[in-house]
Amino acid sequence: MPAFICVTCGTQYPPSDAPPARCPICEDPRQFLPPGGQAWTTLERLRQGHSSAFRRYEPGLTGIGTYPHFAIGQRALLLRTPAGNVLWDCISLLDDATVEIVNALGGLAAIAISHPHFYTSMVEWGRAFSASVHLHAADRGWVMRPDAALAFWEGDTQEVLPGVTLIRAGGHFPGATVLHWKDGAGGRGVLLSADIAQVARDRQSVSFLWSYPNMVPLPRSAVERIVRRLAPFPFEAIYGIFWESVIPADGGAILARSAERYLAAITGEGLAGEG
């Protein structure tokens, strides 16, 4: 039986004779259903018209995305460390070429995913590389395809490999997670921020939303908590969810300034152009 994949968000469901009746991920107000309604595909069909693209960002950090664009369009990130490799976030497509390339780069010791919008085909990835998929337990209810490969963690931090720490920042989802890589960017620290602190189009700031497609903001308390939980982890570079979503330097100061600007905007305090 095929394991159907939602065309809008890329989430894969358990094998079944027919597509699921609905996609709870897309019906949630943080996501959306397109005007044409719910549509489904399978991994087999996806492989026929799509392939993986790779981009080396810096030593030890490679992006993996799907071409042409599929679903949300995020790209995953492959971190290569002396203790093993970690795949950060996930994409729906997994084919033989991708498995071969990732294995040639050292395989995967672990997979970690920021939030439910990027769960996608995580079970396929976990099985293909015999790697545990680390998800925060607070978002367990959003898992659409349970599997023994899934490993739920609790609390506010978890070190998956030496120098690679998952931080529960919350906000976008209760278990929304970022990844701090201590030895990235020449030892200066890297933050993989996903949608929790999304890199803006100017690539000189980040922003914070409860729903990005529907443009619903986060409250002050959530943004202050994100900043507070990241404070112990120094970083220079910030990597968001898309190919060009990269801030190469001064990331810690940029995040702090961005949070101040955001809070000024939602409270009406001190933004230029008010009238």
Report the average pLDDT across residues: 96
- Beta-strand content bin: 25-35%
Low-confidence stretches: none
- What is the tally of helical segments? 7
Tell me, briefly, the overall form.
globular
Strand pairing plus helix content: what structural class? alpha+beta
Fraction of helical residues = 10-25%
Termini separation = 60 Å
What's the arrangement of strands in the largest beta sheet? 3-4-5-6-7-8-9
> Main beta sheet: strand number and arrangement?
7 strands, mixed
Give the helices and strands as they follow along the chain.
EHEHEEEEHEHEEEEEHEEEEEHEEH
Radius of gyration based on Cα positions:
18 Å
Beta strand count: 19
Describe this structure in words.
It is a single chain. The protein is α+β, with helices and mostly antiparallel strands and 275 residues long. 22% of the residues lie in helices and 28% in strands. Strands 3-4-5-6-7-8-9 form a seven-stranded mixed β-sheet. The chain has a six-stranded mixed β-sheet with strand order 10-11-12-13-18-19, with no helix packed on it. The chain has a two-stranded antiparallel ribbon with strand order 1-2. A hairpin with a 2-residue loop joins strand 3 and strand 4. Helix 6 (220-230) runs antiparallel to helix 7 (251-267). It is globular. The mean pLDDT is 96.
Summarize the structure.
With 275 residues, the protein is an alpha+beta fold. The protein is built from seven helices and 19 strands.
Helices and strands, with pairings:
Layout: E1 4-6, H1 24-27, E2 40-42, H2 43-49, E3 51-58, E4 61-67, E5 76-81, E6 84-88, H3 96-104, E7 110-112, H4 122-129, E8 132-136, E9 150-153, E10 157-161, E11 164-168, E12 177-181, H5 184-187, E13 190-192, E14 198-199, E15 206-207, E16 209-211, E17 216-217, H6 220-230, E18 237-239, E19 246-247, H7 251-267
Parallel strand pairs: 6-7, 7-8, 8-9, 13-18
Antiparallel strand pairs: 1-2, 3-4, 4-5, 5-6, 10-11, 11-12, 12-13, 14-15, 16-17, 18-19
Helix pairs in contact: 6-7
